[in-house]
Design goal:
single chain; about 375 residues; alpha/beta; Aspartate Aminotransferase, domain 1; Aspartate Aminotransferase, domain 2; 7-stranded mixed β-sheet
Length: about 375
């Protein structure tokens, strides 16, 4: 028996047997073959903050390390109370996750059965696709509008009696498009009570900084299940400690997310960091302001080079180019600059670039100019 056959025989679930090797994002170590020192590599591919977290968050993490011999609070009480105070959502309707990725996985467990449909904008976060695949649900993709925002009317028209989850990301990753409360309400009203309406707000703080709406009051009037996913990974500069949270529309839905998670899913250091970061809004606003300025510079620079960016409000920009994107990504990587490209059908001519520091912006634009001119 071959190794492959033997390994396959140990996996009884046919879904996982059929899935290919798992993909994972690239980090500095993946560019070791270039010979460029890891400290010299510019990481502009994962929509991370280039700025460290709040000094208060760093101090809180250091203090929390002294007690990691004990398990963390499995109910995350201090952090949940602070989030409740910020959002107005009842504490028993707030569920934390190991990043919002865990919440996306668990939403599929909660709401999907084989043969169901999950409706998503495209391009959008690829984690949605995997959730549908694992739960044997059909993925229904609806292209975004020309401004990169989810096309709520087209999505509403795509709902069927098999729809069990509708995702709407605003701002949308990877395009950065933002929709207002009135538009989101149209979609919310079109989603039947038999489907879970998920508003992915991983980039919520960036949208608000750009003048966008807070949708929670509208969502609370919805006649059907809903949840908003938010995270500390982006605007708070805490991607490495993995804290996301679900704001649930009902006690029953919150209980379902509680049942789907593991007991100690958010560690003690992460809980301490997120709480301290939430209590230092000045630092978050500084990150948002710096990001907005560099986003403007990056957008203008890409346009000067002939690229066609979506009008993003996030900490990233997706831009179309007439050159093969795989070649551009590889050429930049050889120079120690990491960016990504879109893989969604119909959008393979788009690059996605994380908004970083001024120095990174200058280096990226200079290198891209050389590559496009060659």
């Amino acid at each position: 028996m071959s190794d492959k056959a033997g390994q396959s025989a140990t996996i009884p679930n046919a879904i996982f047997k059929a899935m290919g090797p798992p993909g994972s994002p690239s980090i500095e170590r993946d560019l070791a073959a270039t010979g460029i020192a890891a400290t010299q590599i510019r990481r502009m591919n994962l929509n991370e903050s280039p700025y460290p977290p709040s000094a208060q968050a760093i101090a809180a993490m250091q203090a929390a390390c002294s007690t990691v011999n004990y398990y963390p609070d499995p109910k995350w009480r201090d952090l949940v109370a602070a989030i409740s105070g910020e959002t107005g959502i009842a504490e028993n309707r707030i569920v934390l996750g190991n990043g919002s990725d865990e919440l996306i996985v668990n939403a599929g467990k909660i709401a999907l059965n084989p043969g169901d449909e999950m409706l998503v904008p495209v391009p959008s976060f690829p984690g949605y696709d995997k959730s549908a695949e694992i739960n044997q649900a059909a993925l229904v993709r609806v292209p975004v509008r020309q401004d990169g925002a989810p096309d709520v009317d087209a999505m509403a028209a795509a709902i069927t009696d098999k729809t069990r989850i509708v995702y709407c990301a605003t701002p949308n990753n990877p395009t950065g498009g933002l929709i207002g409360t009135a538009e989101l309400e149209r979609l919310s009203q079109a989603v039947p009570a038999s489907a879970l309406f998920i508003v992915d707000e991983a980039y919520y703080e960036f949208g608000r900084h750009a003048g966008g709406d807070d949708h929670l009051q509208m969502l609370q009037a919805r006649q059907g299940p809903w949840v908003s996913f938010r995270t500390f990974s982006k605007a708070f500069g805490l991607a490495g400690i993995r804290v996301g949270y679900a704001l649930c529309g009902s006690d029953d839905l919150a209980n379902a997310f509680q049942q789907a998670r593991s007991v100690f899913n958010v560690n003690a250091v992460a809980q301490a960091a997120a709480l301290a970061a939430l209590r230092d809004p000045d630092h978050t606003q500084w990150i948002l302001t710096q990001t907005a300025e560099e986003r403007r510079r990056l957008d203008a620079g890409l346009r000067r080079l002939g690229c066609r960016p979506f009008p993003s409000v996030g900490n990233f920009i997706a831009a179309a180019t007439d050159r093969p994107t795989a070649d551009i990504v590889a050429a930049l990587a050889a120079r120690g600059i990491m960016i990504s490209r879109l893989m969604a059908p119909g959008y393979q001519d788009y690059l996605r670039i994380t908004v970083s520091t001024a120095d990174d912006t200058d280096a990226l634009l200079a290198a891209l100019s050389d590559i496009l001119a060659a």
